Amino acid sequence: MATLQDIADELGLSRATVSRALNDFPEVSDKTKQKVRAVAKRLGYRPNLHARKLITGRSGIVALLVQEEKNSLLDLSTDSFLGRLTHELTRHNLDLVVRLIAPGERTDPYKRFATRNFVDCIIINAPHVDDYRIEALEEVGAKFVVHGRDIRHQGYAYYDIDNFGGARQAADYLCDLGHERLAILLSDTNLAFASSRLDGFKTEIEKRTHCNCELLIDDHQSHFSYTVAKRALSRKDRPTAIYCGNGLFQAIGVYRAARELGLAIPDDLSVIAHDDAISQGQTEEFSPPLTVTRRPINDACLHLARMVIDLIEDNSAAQMQRVDSVELIVRGSTTRKL
Questions:
Q1: Which of 150, 204, 314, 333 is least enclosed, having the fewest CB within 10 Å?
Q2: Tens digits of residue pLDDT in 25-47
Q3: pLDDT (tens digit, 9 = 90+) per residue, 281-329?
Q4: Exposed, middle or buried: residue 2 (CB in 10 Å: 0-12, 13-18, 19+)?
Q5: Do residues 292 and 331 make contact, with C-beta atoms less than 8 angstroms apart?
Q6: Are 306 and 263 in contact (CB under 8 A)?
Q7: Angle, helix 4-11 to helix 30-43, in steps of 10 degrees
Q8: Where in the chain is the domain with CATH 3.40.50.2300?
Q9: CATH 2.20.25.90 assigned to 61-161+298-324
Q10: Edge-to-edge order in the sheet of strand 291-294
Q11: CATH 1.10.260.40-classified regions of the chain
């Protein structure tokens, strides 16, 4: 295996200059960096990560610690969230490792990744209300970014979308259509995004004296919420409009339940879902096309990567907080209540 000295001997450079070039030190010219990298590639040089960590204080590795068992983030296609995030980090010479965390593991794996000092930054996703992971990482002084936001913690880096505002838009639109019995379908209100969507939906409905809000919980997330939806839609006092707060897969279950009960969408039931624009589903291809609150999940990748870079460069985490808006897109699954 080629060494730094082999590259240095071929180019007539010092070993230190070769090391600095490979580690992208600013004092080395771009021309020299290109020559060094070309020779390193031709000779099959592989860096010693422990040595690079000692020289630069960085490993070039970012860890994505994923807690949820059923998670769309684990799609491995190039146009998926994971593919896009990997691409954005690679542009900055950073590699991504993914670790699945079982719910029962609590804080141990997070602290272990932070204190073993072999990653430059940690990304965690889907925070819960009063998320213990954020507190644990803050306690050990870790550099971390949260994909999502727990409003009960302050001063950490995060990228989120306006879940409260998006759900409020959905409720506002459905009430304006004349619906009085509305339901929001969620799987776990302990998740921060779900709690925010529930709060936004209820806040708007509580302003309308003629509107009522029902919370439908699908604890098991089975059959795309079909069982929960069918039970609610079988009642005489069934909701005439449902907001699928966990996304388009819940809408699949709602559509199926309505069809089996002989309820036409949108004439008998209006349906809205939140759409992360994940690669596995296209809401405009529903029949009828699905009205959505929408923000593509891949929009997060560029901002998360930038926050990782800024944290690695020791910038203030409190200055890295971004919340993007959510758009209401009206299609054929909603109509005025007759």
A1: 314
A2: 777 898 998 999 899 888 888 76
A3: 688 889 999 999 999 999 999 999 999 999 988 889 989 999 999 999 9
A4: middle
A5: yes
A6: no
A7: 120
A8: 61-161+298-324, 163-296
A9: no
A10: 212-217, 181-186, 241-244, 270-275, 291-294, 327-329
A11: 4-36+43-56
Q: Which residues, other chains included, contact 308 with Cβ-Cβ below 8 Å and sequence gap of 6+?
A: 62, 89, 94, 120, 121, 123, 145
Alpha-carbon distance 177 to 189, whole Å?
Answer: 27
Query: Which fold, 163-296?
Result: Rossmann fold (3.40.50)
Q: How many residues does the chain have?
A: 338
* Closest C-alpha to 120, from 312, 302, 252, 267: 312
Confidence of residue 181 (pLDDT cuts 50, 70, 90): very high
Q: CA-to-CA distance for 149 and 309, rounded, in angstroms?
A: 19
Residue 242 has pLDDT above 80, yes or no: yes
- CATH match for 4-36+43-56 among 3.40.1260.10, 3.40.50.1240, 1.20.1250.20, 1.10.260.40: 1.10.260.40
Quote the DSSP letter at residue 293. E
